[in-house]
Structure to design on (311 residues):
């Protein structure tokens, strides 16, 4: 275990220790699962340390890699994770980011409401809500049943597939995981992932999740049409009553598939198992179309997130 000021690059071997800190804190934000940190590690290059019983996570400064990009991405931190007072750790993290990592604007990103409230009276610290990173949380029962007028259009898509008898729902395993990878490659070709650093990061993150389903204890399911994977989802429990969908991909040429995989994943994996009452479907990143899609499922609550920086 690295003791501050030493940091260690995040690796699969760190899962038991990291999960102990997360389980004790019981975070509501989708970023604070080992799975999320691990599958995105090649995008954020996470490093971790322990300071006074608190877990620290830092993304170091890194250069852009696309042609024409010359500026680096500044180092930043995630919020200290733990149950003790965190004000001193926040200030030390700011100092570390500035003095050791070279950040000209040190900041903690995607912090939760608990830390925001803890720091609300500190005059030397600025806390700003970051709407594009708010998580959307839904009732699992609503997503599985799609009952009522507000879900009418989505239920029609699902009913059409069921009426046609054109699909089946299978677990994702060794028999079909190569088809999941093919679907991701197709999705990235349509979206031109090679031209966007964030989409390249997502492409890599999906592959990491698929390559480590068992080691990460992920729940994974697929919609199969004509004996080919047409859509799949990967998720896990975030807290005792809330699941989180980390990955969801569907064939862009088949209308209604996203509605179907969302409904089937909830119905088959979480509606009657694991005690999940809520489903966290992560943020919209400020993308207008994605925001409309997430709002159309009528979230029961939003998980607020904040950017925290020295004044």
């Amino acid at each position: 275990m690295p003791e501050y000021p030493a940091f260690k690059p995040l690796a699969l071997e760190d899962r038991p220790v990291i999960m102990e800190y997360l389980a004790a804190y019981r975070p509501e934000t989708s970023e604070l699962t080992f799975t999320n940190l691990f599958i995105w590690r090649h995008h954020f290059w996470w490093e971790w340390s322990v300071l006074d019983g608190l877990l620290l996570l830092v993304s170091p400064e890194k250069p852009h890699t696309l042609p024409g990009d010359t500026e680096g991405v500044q180092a930043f931190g995630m919020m200290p994770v733990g149950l003790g007072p965190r004000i001193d750790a926040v200030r030390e993290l700011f100092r570390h980011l500035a003095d050791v990592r070279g950040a000209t604007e040190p900041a903690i990103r995607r912090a939760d409401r608990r830390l925001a409230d803890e720091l609300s009276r500190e005059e030397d610290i600025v806390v700003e809500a970051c709407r594009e990173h708010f998580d959307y949380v839904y009732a699992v029962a609503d997503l599985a049943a799609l009952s009522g007028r507000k879900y009418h259009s989505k239920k029609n898509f699902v009913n059409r597939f069921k009426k046609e008898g054109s699909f089946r729902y299978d677990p994702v395993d060794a028999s079909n995981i190569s088809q999941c990878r093919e679907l991701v490659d197709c999705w990235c070709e349509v979206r031109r992932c090679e031209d966007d650093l964030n989409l390249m990061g997502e492409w890599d993150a999906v592959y990491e999740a698929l390559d480590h389903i068992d080691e990460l204890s992920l729940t994974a399911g697929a919609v199969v049409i004509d004996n080919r994977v047409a859509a799949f989802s990967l998720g896990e429990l975030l807290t005792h009553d809330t699941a989180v969908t980390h990955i969801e991909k569907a064939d862009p040429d088949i209308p209604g598939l996203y509605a179907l995989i969302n409904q089937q994943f909830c119905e088959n994996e979480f509606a009657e198992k694991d005690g999940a009452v809520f489903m966290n479907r992560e943020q919209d990143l400020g993308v207008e179309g994605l925001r409309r899609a997430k709002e159309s499922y009528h979230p029961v609550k939003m998980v607020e997130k904040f950017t925290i920086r020295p004044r």
User: Anything to note?
Assistant: Residues 39 and 209 are 6 Å apart (CA to CA). The domain at 137-282 is CATH 3.40.630.30 (Aminopeptidase). The chain has two domains: 8-134, 137-282.
